[in-house]
Amino acid sequence: MDKNNINLFPILIKHTKKFIDVNEINEILNLVNNLNLNTHGSFLGEAISSYTLQKNNNFFKDTFLEKKLNLAISEYAMDLGIEDCSIERSWVNIQKPNSELLEHNHSPSPISGALYLQVDDKSSKIFFHNPNPFIKVIRSIKSTYNNTSYFYIKPENGDLILFPGWLEHSSNREINKSQERIVLSFNTI
Question: In the chain, at which residue ranges do the beta strands (DSSP E only) sit?
Answer without folding.
Answer: 14-16, 43-44, 47-49, 87-95, 100-101, 111-118, 126-129, 150-153, 160-164, 169-170, 181-188
